[in-house]
Amino acid sequence: MKDLVKQKLFYQRIIIGFLILAIIPFVILHFFNQPTPEDFYYSEEARNIGIINSFRVLYKFYGGRYFTYILISLQPLYFHSIILYKIVTLLFMIIFIYVLYYFISEFTKNFLSKTERIVLTLTVFFIYLISMPSSGQGIYWLISVMHYNTALMLLMLFSVFYHRIHNSENVQKRNFYIFLSCLSAALIPGTIELAAIIMILYIIILNIYSIFSNKKINWWLILISIITIVCVYFVFASPGNAERSLRYSEKHMFWQSIFTSLTFLIESVASWIFTTPLLVVTILLLPLFFKMLKEYPVSDGLLRIKVIYLFLIFGSFLYSSTFVIAWSIGIMPYDRILNFIFFIFLIGWFLIVISLLSKISIKYDIKSFRIHKLIYIIGVILIVFFLIKENNVTTAYKDLFTGKAKIFNLSVYERYDQIERSSNDSLEIDSIQNVPSSFFFQDITFDTKKPFNKGYQSYFKKNYIVRKKY
Fold first, then answer.
1. Is residue 70 within 8 Å of residue 147, measured between CB atoms?
2. For residues 229 and 352, is the Cβ–Cβ distance under 8 A?
3. 3-state DSSP assignment of residue 469
4. Contact assessment for residue 111 and residue 169, using Cβ atoms and an 8 Å cutoff
5. Rounded to 5 degrees, what angle do the CA atoms 45, 61, 155 make?
6. Per residue, what are the HEC states of 128-177?
7. pTM for the full predicted model
8. Tell me: the pLDDT tens digits for 127-176?
9. Residue 434 in contact with residue 408, Cβ under 8 Å?
């Protein structure tokens, strides 16, 4: 028995090592990462007119993201530190992994060992990492990370805090988690509009569940609901949302948005299931799920929810996120939005799989489940096949080993040196060539009045900086 446990632990450590190898290049690439001109704009706006006035401008002309507007204004470039920018983007990645682990552990710590929870966390993050539409916008572009990853982390934290309200040992702990739930409910709508919509749906679902399960609505859920509604209203009442939508001519086409967003979502989900390692990894995780379900109480809230209801819940999250983009601006979700939607899909996928396995294990009285070694071998071969194909992991390794990331980093620093050494107040500079595929970099333009150029000019204390025309 001890030998079996040791063997199992040995294999788990090998898996962890493999997953870490997939993540390592993304960690190293942070040292070659560089801010985009858009990053300079927000920090310089805050420095020049003050945080409060900067927030007013953003709320009036850009949107209602009251929480992340403060974050992007006070990001490292506000303190004129490129090095700190690199460090903070790396910290966001580390914190994201930890919050994911914290979220998974909350619902599995009584049934899975710490090593197993680490395996599950790194596996989910690996699938997200290898398959996300844009690693540059999801990991390295700090403005995008502060908006979208913060939203995802707060949604996970809210789920943990709300779960702990019902599992607190005493009134003091319960009130503490009520406070944290209220705080996260207030912050989530202020990240991105999609998170605000998901939070409203989430609260509706919690209220419905409370009515049918407990035959009442607790006072703290009423309080959380009120806070959420007020904050969501503050977001969507922002004049910046109306101002931003004026830039898009295809907006507010209701029936067209219904069908185009549905088609787009179906195509995206099919792609995420069949062109990524998701199915293979899910099969390899089956023994872990069955082990968890063996001791998981059937009376637990999650397992009491029918699979069809979970499907509808996460379907509504995904569809509303897609529809609101199609309706409000008339285009399909772009990469950083798809990163967000894809992660929501992953969480929903695994919850639905676990719930489905729970029903199967009860119906057929399955006490344990093992996968034949041949299936493991085939699974590993398939994962290697996915890794050989072009994906974010192979791209990250290429950007490192070809020196492309290093050259990019040096070329941007050379640009900074050129600007700072120049005694001229007006400059025309070369564009940054050969940006690594792992990064996102939208350069300045030929127009000094563009916000990106303004931020650059202000940061380097120049009156005029544009990109050369070739």
1. no
2. no
3. coil
4. no
5. 90
6. HHHHCCCHHHHHHCHHHHHHHHHHHHHHHHHHHHHHHHCCCCCHHHHHHH
7. 0.93
8. 999 999 999 999 999 999 999 999 999 999 999 999 999 888 789 999 99
9. yes
CB 400: neighbour CB atoms within 10 A?
19
The C-alpha atoms of residue 187 and residue 66 are separated, in whole angstroms, by: 8
First to last CA, the chain: 71
DSSP states along 29-87: HGGG----HHHHHHHHHHHHH-HHHHHHHHHHHT---HHHHHHHHTSGGGGT-HHHHHH
- 172 half-sphere exposure, CB direction, 13 A CA radius: 0
Measured between alpha carbons, how far is 185 from 83 in angstroms, rounded to an integer? 33
| Buried b or exposed e, range 374-385, using 16+ CB within 10 angstroms | eeeeebeebbee
- In sequence order, what DSSP letters do the residues of 214-238 get, joined into one string? HSS--HHHHHHHHHHHHHHHHHHT-
Contact (CB, 8 A) for 326 and 260: yes
Cα dihedral sign, 354-356-359-362: negative
Query: Which two structure tokens, joined as six digits, stand for 150?
Result: 């913060």
Distance CA 428, CA 448 (A): 11
Structure tokens at 418: 């050129």
Alpha-helix residue ranges (DSSP H) falling in 402-466:
404-421, 451-459
What are the structural domain ranges in the chain?
A: 2-401, 404-467
Q: Which amino acid is at 444?
A: I
Mean pLDDT of all residues in 363-382: 74
Non-local CB neighbours of 112 within 8 Å, separated by 6+ positions = 120, 288, 291, 292
Q: Which residue has the tokens 């699938």?
A: 127
**Tokens 């041949």 belong to residue:** 374
Sequence-separated (6 or more) residues with CB below 8 Å from residue 469: 446
Helix residue ranges per DSSP H, 301-429: 301-304, 307-329, 335-363, 373-388, 392-401, 404-421
**Cα 427 to Cα 445: distance, rounded to the nearest angstrom:** 12
Please report where in the chains the tokens 């890794």 appear, as a residue: 387
Comparing CA positions, the residue from 454, 425, 420, 464 lying closest to residue 45 is 454
- The region that residue 63 occupies, defined by phi over 0 for left and psi between -120 and 50 for alpha, beta otherwise, is left
CB 444 within 8 A of CB 466: yes
User: Any idea which of 71-75, 168-172, 269-273, 368-372 has the lowest mean pLDDT?
Assistant: 368-372
Furthest C-alpha separation in the chain? 79
